[in-house]
Design a protein that fits this description.
Helices cover about 30% and strands about 20% of the residues. It is an alpha+beta fold. The strands form 2 sheets. The protein has a two-stranded antiparallel ribbon with strand order 1-2. It has a two-stranded antiparallel sheet with strand order 3-4.
Length: about 100
Amino acid sequence: MTTAALGGEFEVPTLDTTRARVKVAPGTQPGQRVRLKQKGMPVLRSKDFGDLYVQLDVETPQSLTRRQRELLEEFERESTRENSPTSGGFFDKLKKMFEA
């Protein structure tokens, strides 16, 4: 969750049994895909390799400590609609349609 919010890197296994580093931009959302060039399946009748796509799945932490909970609650109080523009509900989106 913090890597998706702040940006960073992590490693993933590839098809050739090696590991590749994936760079994540700050504010990355669940379901976004990152392309790793030349890390996919071999191209038929060629020495080339295709691209490997990594779909990002953001994990929500469980079993928080008291301090972690306090920090997340503080973060929630400081959050605004600009921080999370897609979190508005159906009626918020419908209202925006008629305001335009």
